[in-house]
Design a protein that fits this description.
This protein has 821 residues and is of the alpha/beta class. The chain has 32 helices and 30 strands. The protein has an eight-stranded mixed beta sheet with strand order 3-6-2-1-9-11-12-10, sandwiched between helices. A six-stranded antiparallel beta sheet has the order 14-15-13-16-18-17. The protein has a six-stranded mixed beta sheet with strand order 21-20-19-22-23-24, sandwiched between helices. Helix 2 packs parallel to helix 4, helix 3 (61-81) packs antiparallel against helix 4 and helix 4 (87-111) runs antiparallel to helix 6.
């Protein structure tokens, strides 16, 4: 005979009761069935709330009427569906139960409190109604059935609302129960009786526990727990995207997972089936074809190492410490005796090797009670300062890695704690059992969900997540979004999940917890957003949504945004940017950026600040980290001016060349930023600082294309109308160079620790003479590259190549990439 348990959404309405009937009748025809039922969905919560309302002196009648409508509504629907349904008997039973309930509630209203023994009877009403409905369904279908009242059969000990069954004594009471399949057995879950015969309940997941007890008492061949999920997952699928369904768990693995918070199971459920070696199958009522998860002595052949990650919330940790613990025999036993006498369960224990302190975790609901008891028990030691004041830490969670094969697998603990470090999680306490079947850490509750996601990613998934927040949706930003949207299939094929969760401009911030649809009208969505950008708001969003790998991408040229990079990294964000303002700010701030990136283990990536999409910074960093020393650098660093000066060779005037470059998107929005030479100077300063030269922007000698003070205080449009005033003078310089067989180029150079930006006439033999049309070219003379320089040349202007370079930097923030830097 098999025991099947149904509850929750499986019993939400008449059609689902009928589905449960079909599933269980199939089993009964082949093996014989004993079914354990929970209350109809929502009924137990309603009963609990009715007790609260009555105790608080509130009007409970509206909720009582709603409860009546719920259960009688199921009976009415079943009566419409089934011929021979014993409607009058069922309604009479429901009416009698609710009449007794009303009397109890009236008594609770007078007392102002619901005594536990009365509450136990009230909270179990739903289960008795459920089995009455189910029995009537079976009778209507011609199936012989028997309702087993657990008050007569299951003996339990403990509190009225959270008792533990004595399976051995209970089993002796089942001698008159037929287990040959001749009768379909039905039992309400959640209920038992104490030695006095009083009704008690079995606590959280009590119906699952009841099923395990019944299976042990009738020596069932299997216990099937039917839920609304396909089985046991290696992490909570509601929190972890890509959680994996486990095919098998041993009893010990199931116990570890259930004890530390796996919601499908409860430790009390595992006990009876493990003790009697009864296989337990977790299955889905809504998907009966799914194979489910088998809990037995069989080990999985698919998952041989780590099986799952569990999270136990609402934990409080106590730390009992002081010189009185050192070498004092019996102090630890006194601590735990206090907890035992108070019937307080301890979730985790850890002790320092110095014997100076003992730490343990309990459920937060018992924290105040535990503190008072400990302070009373150790009043003398506390008074004489043999013990420090008892430390209590609230708002904690226990995250546990579980698997039988962990003992044989090296490096799991290191990977576990590396994952926590990646999630920027501090370990409050650590514990590992001698069986090496589990490793647990106590952390802040607000960090737990993120920790579980990263641990799952590192142990069970090859997928890497990148969570992007874009600041600046102009030329480069818009192109970047288009590239990200286009590359989604390719990224997913490489196990990279890149989502843009936020975007901002100078006025608005758009956030979406599901990721922004880049193929939709994101511009309109951004325009209709109602909040502004701040690091604090982004940090709150990341924490609220437990994002694993947040990256802020600054595609602006604003100094105000660049000044926040330190705050961004300290808040846990990687920073990727083509904005040159941060790295060309004061040397003190530049050094602070570098130190912050190292201290926070965040990536600060700015490849596109020099050379757009060319790998300039990366190559420089690799050269210098390998011990190379820069002697001389010379190059064309502005794609904009490369384009402009190339057009001068073709006969265009300065104003014509600038207008063409602006129309093609080669220049900054304000071309003065390019023509002033300041953009090239910033790039040169970035390279100089990468070469470990402690220079400021003011140290760079700059020759501007524009005369001093030219059109400085006017709009961009006004500037463009005045620019032809310079054409004649500049044309003369072009002609002078041409008369010598040379061309003009805008060149930045570093030599002898000094930087210079200038307009140079170069001969055809100089490689820079051929650089035009938006190309960049850089020649590096160093210890390793001498006398022939190391040359990098390529397209260096325009939103497309810059966006591509930013995209490449974003991909460097993947966790496995972080290990390499």
């Amino acid at each position: 005979m098999k025991v099947l348990k149904f509850g929750g959404s499986s019993l939400a309405d008449a059609p689902r009761y009928l589905r449960v009937t079909e599933i269980s009748m199939d089993t009964h025809q082949t093996d014989g069935a004993a079914v354990v039922l929970s209350a109809p969905k929502g009924v137990t919560n309603a009963l609990s709330l009715l007790c609260e309302q009555a105790a608080g002196g509130e009007d409970f009648q509206p909720l009582l009427d709603k409860l009546n409508d719920t259960v009688t509504g199921i009976a009415n629907s079943l009566n419409d569906e089934l011929n021979g349904f014993e409607y009058n008997r069922v309604i009479a039973f429901i009416d009698s139960q609710l009449a007794v309930l009303k009397k109890h509630l009236q008594g609770i209203s007078l007392l102002g409190v619901a005594p536990d023994n009365v509450a136990a009877g009230i909270l179990s009403i739903g289960e008795y109604i459920s089995v009455t409905l189910f029995g009537a369904i079976l009778t209507a279908k011609g199936v012989t059935n028997r309702i087993i009242d657990p008050v007569k059969y299951i003996l339990a000990d403990g509190e009225y609302l959270d008792s533990i069954a004595d399976v051995s004594l209970s089993k002796a009471r089942f001698t008159d129960v037929p287990v040959d399949g001749s009768e379909f057995l039905i039992m309400p879950g959640f209920v038992a009786a104490n030695e006095e015969g009083q009704k008690v309940t079995l606590g959280r997941n009590g119906s699952d526990y009841s099923a395990a007890i019944l299976a042990a008492c009738i020596d069932a061949s299997c216990c099937e727990i039917w839920t609304d999920v396909d089985g046991v997952y290696n992490a909570d699928p509601n929190q972890v995207e890509g959680a994996v369904l486990l095919d098998k768990l041993t009893y010990q693995e199931a116990m570890e997972l259930s004890y530390f918070g796996a919601k499908v199971l409860h430790p009390k459920t595992i006990g009876p089936i493990a003790q009697h070696h009864i296989p337990c199958l977790i299955r889905n009522t809504l998907n009966p074809a799914a194979p489910g998860t088998l809990i037995s002595n069989e080990k999985s052949e698919k998952w041989t190492s780590v099986k799952g990650i569990s999270q136990l919330d609402n934990v409080t940790m106590f730390n009992v410490a002081g010189p009185g613990l050192k070498g004092m025999v019996g102090m630890a036993s006194r601590v735990f005796e206090v907890m035992s006498n108070a019937n307080i369960s301890i979730s985790l224990i850890t002790q320092s090797s110095s014997e100076y302190s003992i730490s343990f975790c309990i459920q937060s609901k018992d924290a105040n009670k535990a503190l008072n008891l400990l302070e009373d028990a150790f009043a003398l030691e506390l008074q004489n300062q043999l013990l420090d004041p008892i430390e209590v830490r609230n708002d904690l969670a226990i995250v546990t890695l579980v698997g039988d094969g962990m003992r044989q697998t090296k490096g799991l603990a290191a990977r576990f704690f590396n994952s926590l470090a990646q999630a920027r999680v501090n370990n409050v306490a650590i514990a590992q059992g001698s069986s090496e079947r589990s490793i647990s850490t106590v952390i802040e509750t607000k960090r737990a969900k993120k920790a579980v996601k990263i641990i799952h990613q590192n142990f069970f998934s090859n997928r890497h997540t990148i969570d992007v927040f874009l600041v600046g949706c102009g030329n480069v930003g818009s192109e970047l979004l288009a590239q990200i949207a286009k590359q989604q299939p390719s990224l997913l094929a490489r196990n990279i999940q890149l989502r843009v969760y936020g975007m901002a401009n100078s006025r608005k911030l758009l956030l979406n917890s599901q990721g922004i649809d880049l193929n939709g009208d994101w511009k309109a969505a951004l325009e209709s957003a109602r909040e502004g950008l701040s690091v604090e708001r982004l940090d709150q969003f990341v924490n609220d949504n437990s994002l694993v790998n947040p990256v802020i991408v600054d595609c602006t040229s604003h100094e105000a945004i660049a000044n926040q990079y330190v705050d961004m990294m300290e808040s846990g964000f990687h920073v990727v940017t083509p904005n040159k303002k941060a790295n060309t700010s004061a040397m003190e701030y530049y050094r602070k950026l570098k130190k912050t990136a190292q201290a926070t283990n965040r990536q600060y990536l700015y490849e596109t600040t020099v050379g757009a999409g060319l790998p300039v910074i990366d190559n420089l960093q690799k050269l210098f980290s390998a011990g190379d020393v820069l002697h001389r650098f010379e190059g064309i660093l502005s794609g904009s001016l490369s384009y402009v000066f190339g057009k001068l060779d073709e006969g265009m005037t300065l104003s014509q060349a600038t207008e063409t470059a602006k129309q093609n998107g080669f220049t900054e929005p304000d071309p003065r930023d390019d023509l002033s030479g300041m953009d090239v100077a910033r790039k040169l300063l970035i390279m100089a600082r990468e070469a470990d030269l402690a220079l400021e922007l003011s140290d760079i000698e700059i020759e501007s294309v524009l005369p001093p003070g030219f059109a400085e205080k006017c709009s961009v449009d006004e500037f463009m109308t005045q620019l032809p005033d310079l054409d004649e003078a500049f044309a003369a310089r072009v002609e002078d160079a041409k008369s010598e067989g040379k061309v003009l180029r805008y060149i930045g150079s570093i030599e002898d620790g000094k930087c210079k930006v200038s307009i140079e006439a170069v001969s055809p033999s100089n490689p820079l003479s051929q650089v035009k049309d938006g190309e960049n070219a850089l020649a590096i003379n160093s210890d390793y590259y001498n006398p022939i320089p190391y040359v990098i040349r390529g397209y260096g202007a325009g939103g497309t190549v810059t966006a591509a370079g930013v995209f490449a930097d974003i991909l460097r923030t993947m966790p496995w990439k972080q290990m390499a830097y």
